[in-house]
Amino acid sequence: MNFKTVSLIGIAAVAVYVLSQMGKDDRIGAQIDTYKDRIGKATLAANAQDESQTSQAAEEQGILQGNVRVMDARTLQFLKADVKVEIAGIEVCDKGQLAYFNGTPWPCETMATAWMVSQTLGRDVQCQTLERRYDAVVIARCGVGGADIAAEAIVAGHALVDSKRNYRLPYDTYQSLENQARQNRTGLWSSSFTRPDEWRQSVYEDRKSQVRIVE
Fold it and tell me: Given CB 3.0 to 4.6 Å as the disulfide criterion, which of 44, 49, 78, 108 pairs with 99?
């Protein structure tokens, strides 16, 4: 809230108080109600203008903020801005990928997505834009309640560190958290699994071989 807004609200409060004292005179009661209504509308307009200016400034700085819908284990969609964001610095299980706990398969992508929902549902998410992809997806560092979502996903064992792209991120911290999750056998580290990038490559090779067979 800027100085102009504070000044307007302060003046409005004083005016309402003075008018309320004058209200003892029934002859100007109707006028008082009219003035109060106008003051209230002016205050709301000032607040709306201030919020709009704040939102515009945030967008200019590449900051997204608000409620999100989880698209997958590392992709969020801001509801108000209708912008898709990929969380930078992490690698997660791909759709359909399985991990194996003592030989028993479990859907690691589904579990990671459910975890992401539990961390963001109904909460205010903030993302700092790092890159805009050709398909309009924003690559960003995101947080909830002051916590780095990527770091939380790594320490929970639902994500691995992805340092292949050189973004301004605390990769050393991320790697330390991954080592901690591995030692504690948390999440993926409780099971045997294929690294997501290797799994995607194997799926691609399988599909390519199937196309050759059909031909």
Answer: 108
